[in-house]
Each structure stands twice: as C-alpha cells, then as structure tokens.
Design goal:
The protein is α/β, with parallel strands linked by helices. The protein has one domain: Alpha/Beta hydrolase fold, catalytic domain (Rossmann fold, 3-Layer(aba) Sandwich), CATH 3.40.50.1820. It has 9 helices and 10 strands. Strands 1-2-4-3-5-6-9-10 form an 8-stranded mixed β-sheet, with helices on both faces. Helix 2 crosses helix 3 and helix 4 runs antiparallel to helix 5.
Length: about 280
Amino acid sequence: MDELVARTVDGVTLRIDRVRAKDPKGVVVCLHAMMTDGRYFGARREGSFAATLAEAGYDVLVADFRGHGRSRPPTAGPDDWSFDDLVELDLPAIVAEATRASSCAPEDLVLLGHSLGGLVATAALGTGRIATPRLLVLPAVSVWLLGAHGPLRRRAIMSVYRASATLLGRAPIRALRAGTADEPKTYVRQLTGWSRAARWTSLRGVDYTQAAQKVDVPCLPFSGAGDWMCTPRDARAFSGHLRCAADVRIVGRAHGDAIDPDHFQLFTCPELRPLWRDIAERMSC
C-alpha cells in the first residue's frame, strides 16, 4: 500500500490510499459514504474489499473527501463546505491524481461510489465536471427526496440533522457515535434541503436529477437487503434516472448471499467476499 496526494484548485489536500495489484488490468477509485471516511474499504487490511479487488487484478485507490479521514484541514465547524464542493473540486482532483499516478486515461478508470460517493460521481458526470470513466459502480446510492408527505421517520431524521448543524455549525456525528466524521453546516443544509423540496439540486439551482439522465456510462447498482438508509426500492428509484444502468443487484439471503447486509456491511463483512469477487468479475466484462 502506498499513499497519494491530490490537491484541489481551492488548495485542499486530499489523501488517497493505493493498493497495488501484482499484474494490474485496471484501476478502481473507491469513494466513501457521508459521516465517515474510506477506511471501511480496507486499503490497509488483508482480506478486505480493497484487498480482494487487488487480488483480482485491480489497482485500488481509496480517496477521502475534504474534512474526512486524513483529508484535513478543513474541519467541519471551524470550516465549511457544500456537496457541490465535492462535485466540482474534490472529485476532479481525485480523478486527475488517479490518472497521473496510474498512467492511464480517465476513460480507463472504474469509479465505485458508495452512497454519498455515488451521488458525487453521478452529479460530476452529469454536469461534465469529470470525463466519462469505463464503468460506474453504485452500491447503496439514493437521495431522499421526501417532500412534505414522505415517511415520518426519514423526515424526522432530516429535521434533527439540520437543526443540529444550524445550532452548532456542524452535525456532531462523532459525539453521537454515528460515524467518524462531522459534517459542516452548508453541506447538511443542502442535503436536508433536497429532502424538504423533493429536488436534488446544486446551490446554484442546477438540477442534478436531470443531469443524471445525461450520464451514458455503464452503471452497476446494488443494494443490501438489510439497508434502511438505501433500501432496494430507493436504489431502484435512483438507478431509474440512469439510462445505462443494469438491474439493481439485491444482496441478501433470498438471493444466495450469506447475510442481509446493512449500509456498511456490504464492504466490511467477510461473509460477503463472494460478492466482492463477483463485483471484480463484472468489472472485467
């Protein structure tokens, strides 16, 4: 494993772990979910998801978005940023460093965006912020567009999330033991604003849902049967906006898998190693 550094045009340093394959046949860039960082992909662990892809012949690059993991500063609270900053600044810098370090073109990459990472990748592709990769893998990707009559539990979660960030200048994720990274006020207000308005937009009014319909890269979506944050129904609704998406692969006992995984068990549970190998195989097709 070695470490790479990407620098955004606004001066933020982003950290990337790289796991090298012995005889690489491709490059996969893994993008993490919100309220955490890329450690759960396991770039520094044997037998992990990242290690499994490397064994299958892929160089694996695990990036941390700004304010997450080792990509600090900035720090949520004293510093602030938006979802759009991840789309317009962070991911272009990550892709540029991935292609430089791997001596490949952007169209040779596989982008694997989990949850938030998938939203960032889709928005960046739809708005032309990054070049089209070879493949987009979208595990547990959805956006809660609830409106005034959405499920009460989800509306309550969004309200508490927004109120805490407004009061404290950040959502205190670490203090609540809900994750490893606090999220900043502007990001949280943007995210919860989508839920309230039932529209996925940039702060300047760009409609990311419409932009997603322009994405013409092959997409492989999948979702855990035990995931309440992105249910199979949520994943199908999101992938329905992508014209080149395959059918959503539901991961669960009813489909021959060892467990019904939640949002993160997709990548942390060794019992799902057959799934990880299947993902690697499908990336080769």
